[in-house]
Amino acid sequence: MTTQATSTKANPATAKLTLNGKDYDLPVIVGTEGETAVDVRKFRDASGAITYDPGYGNTGACSSAITFIDGDKGILQYRGYPIEELARGASFLEVAYLLIYGKLPNKQEWADFSGQITLHTLIHEDMKKFFEGYPSGAHPMAILAAMVASLSTYYPEDAASFNLNITRLLAKLPTIAAFSYKKSIGQPFVYPRNELSYAGNFLNMMFAVPSATYTVKPEVEKALNLLLILHADHEQNCSTSTVRMVGSSKANLFATIASGISALSGPLHGGANQEVIEMLESIRAAGGDHQKFVAQSKDHGSNVKLMGFGHRVYKNFDPRAKILKEAADDVLKALGVKDPTLDIAKGLEEVALRDDYFVSRKLYPNVDFYSGIIYRALGIPTDMFTVMFAIGRLPGWVAHLKEMRDDTTTRINRPRQIYTGPTKRAFVPLSSR
Ligand code: SDX
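^ thats the input. predicted complex w/ s-citryldethia Coenzyme A below
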């Protein structure tokens, strides 16, 4: 395939692909940050051939105005705003509004949006009974996915209720998450409190008990707000692509987001933050030998990975990991927490980033490498780490679903395949086999 003159937005070039001696001119699409794509939408009709890209690592499944990532430069922007600036100056709900509605809210929009969220934090009292059916050791990600899907039985969806259901889900997800934690430790549910912030309300529902006064520490609230912002969106990652896939069938909001929660639970995706802490703990228990673990993670036969390292897109530092590494020091100091796993993590990073195996494969710490250390310092139990990722990622999932719904050209997603099974053969009755 050859591409003619450098393609620009003003003057998009075409790409020439030759197949079986025939030339095909394919349009070239250029994004606002200069990314280039070859548009193959008409190629199969013209040539009978499809393109092939298992795992979609080189395939654009959509165009989107929500988040921009430059994996080589370590850039992450939500609606054009650098993640570093949002992390320093915004609240998580402001970022949620930005991702979903495309702009930072003005004072009136902020009052309406945050006010509506506050009014919808309760779940229907009947939904509390659902928790009684789960075994005490149930993983909270399984409960979260099931409860979110069940919200559709209380709030059926039509065009008029879609935006209200977005508000309901943003408001209720922390409540469901906190209730699942309280159920797992046998404590009574703590109801939402309207005077608290989004992060503060979640912390109160998680850690308050009827028999004592719980005060949300500002440094804990600030750290949680930061963690939620850093996880809020990441363009076409596995769980967001799942949301777009399921949402393209016009499944309702709750069923669609429940599919994103399930995709996120995998250890290669959002489940990695729990795996990182368990990895760091196992290294500590084995005497803290980074070198030995790094050697194991380089041996493909060991089935051991350096969890929290590597990324499909970032081939430089994940900007979120940079921010979290600094925040981990600040939060532990502010809380007076000594966590040896932080030193183990820093040691691992140092050893790996001097090792050619990782350098040659451009494997750097990703968002999951340091997040668990901060969650733990905030008192969040390890099996709730991926739930925290889901609470953070919810606005991103919703934003992509809304963007897809608002695009009148959206069609149901239906990829093609290359068949490699048996060619046509006659059926043989059981009596003859
Ligand atoms: C998230 O997409 C997103 O944006 C995701 C996310 C988001 O915000 O939504 O950023 C969140 O999911 C972060 C990633 C969390 N997962 C982990 O930390 C799990 C450990 N990382 C790896 O499993 C892996 O790096 C992935 C899954 C993150 C990326 O996988 P790829 O792009 O398919 O890369 P690969 O598995 O093909 O690896 C390429 C090479 C292989 O070696 P070779 O075959 O070339 O010899 O690098 C090796 C891999 O074995 N490798 C690792 C490794 N990651 C990749 N070797 C040891 N430890 C690792 N962590």
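The pocket of s-citryldethia Coenzyme A is lined by residues 234, 237-238, 268-269, 272, 297, 300, 305-313, 361, 363, 366-368 (CB under 6 Å).
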